[in-house]
Amino acid sequence: MKELFSVTGKVIVITGGSGVLGGAIGEHLIQQGAKIVVIGYREESVIAKLKDLARFGSDPLGLAVDCTKEDQLVTARKKIMDRWGRIDVLINGAGGNLPGATIAPTQTIFDCKLDDIQSVIDLNLMGSVVPSLIFGKVMAEQKQGSIINISSMAADRAITRVFGYSLAKAAIDQLTKWMAMEMAHKFGDGIRVNAIAPGFFIGNQNRRLLTEEDGSYTERGKTIINNTPMSRFGDITELNGIVQYLSSDASKFVTGTIIPIDGGFSAFSGV
Ligand SMILES: NC(=O)c1ccc[n+]([C@@H]2O[C@H](COP(=O)([O-])OP(=O)(O)OC[C@H]3O[C@@H](n4cnc5c(N)ncnc54)[C@H](O)[C@@H]3O)[C@@H](O)[C@H]2O)c1
User: Fold this and answer.
1) How far apart are CA 5 and CA 149, in angstroms?
2) DSSP state of 10
3) How far apart, in whole angstroms, are the C-alpha atoms of residue 219 and residue 151?
C-alpha cells in the first residue's frame, strides 16, 4: 500500500510553487521524498520558498519563469533535464486575478476592463496550456507522466464577481479532458492528465473577498459557508492527499477527471 501511493524520487514541477496552494503542496511532496521544482513569477518569492523548503533537508530547484512565455519555459525545461533528466509530474498551480476582470457589488459586467480580462485568461489558461505543452513533451518522450491542473468551483457554475477567472477556469476543464484524450491516444496509457477543483480555501487572491480585516467572514464568506455542507473553509493541507494520489501509481487508470475538494459545495443544491 505504501508503494502504491509513493512519490519518492519522482521529479515534480510545480508552477506557482511559491504561492499559497503550490507552496503547501510542494512542502508535502518534498517530505514524501519527491524532487521538487518550484516555479514562480518573482525571483525573490522563489528564493524565499527554497529557503523555507531547506528545512526538510532536500535540495529543490527554483526557477523564476513567466508561465505564459514559451521561450522561458523551454529554458526551464533544459535546466530541469540537466539536473534530473526527467519530469514525472507537472502541477499547473500558477494563477491569479485582477480587479478589472472582476465585478464589484456596485458594478455591472460593462465596467470590466477588457485588457484585464485578457490578462487573467492569459495567466490562468495559457499559463497552464504552455507549461503542459513544453513539459508534456518530455512526458510524451518518456511515455510516462502525470499533469495536474487546478480548476475551480467557478469552472462549471456562475459564481458572482469573478468573471474573467471563471472563463479561464472553465477552459482549464476542457484542457484537462482534451489533453488526457490526446496524450493517451498518441503516447499511450502512461500519461495522465487530471484536474483538482478546490472549493474555498483562503489564499492571497481571495482573502479580502472572504474575510474582513478582523478575521470575521464577509457576507460572501458567510454565503459560501452556508452552501458548503461541511460548514467551513478548506485547510490547504487537505489538498495533499489528492495531489499525492494523482502523482502516484495509485491513479494509474485515472485520466481526464476534474476532482472537487470542496466539503460538498459542488454536490449541494443549496436547499
Ligand atoms: N486559494 C483558493 O481558495 C483557490 C481555490 C481554487 C483554485 N485556486 C487556484 O489555485 C492556484 C493557486 O492559487 P493560490 O491561492 O496559491 O494563489 P497565490 O497568489 O498564492 O499564488 C499564485 C502563484 O502563481 C505564480 N504566478 C503568477 N503569475 C505567474 C506567471 N505569469 N508565471 C509563473 N508563475 C506565476 C505566483 O508566483 C505564485 O507562486 C490558482 O490557479 C488559483 O486560481 C485557488
Assistant:
1) 19
2) -
3) 24
For 11-199+236-259, CATH gives 3.40.50.720
Of the residues 13, 21, 157, which should be mutated to test ligand 1's pocket, given the most ligand atoms within 8 Å of the CB? 21
Mean pLDDT over residues 159-177, rounded? 97
Closest C-alpha among 192, 217, 197, 199 to residue 207 = 217
Q: What's the pTM value of the predicted model, to 2 decimals?
A: 0.96
Atom 7 (ligand 1) nearest CA:
152
- Asked if 225 contacts 217 with a C-beta cutoff of 8 angstroms, the reply is yes
pLDDT band at 1 (very low <50, low <70, confident <90, very high): low
Residue 139 grid cell:
512526458
Domain with CATH 3.40.50.720 in the chain: 11-199+236-259
Q: What is the mean pLDDT of the chain?
A: 96
- Report the range of poorest mean pLDDT among 196-205, 233-242, 254-263: 196-205
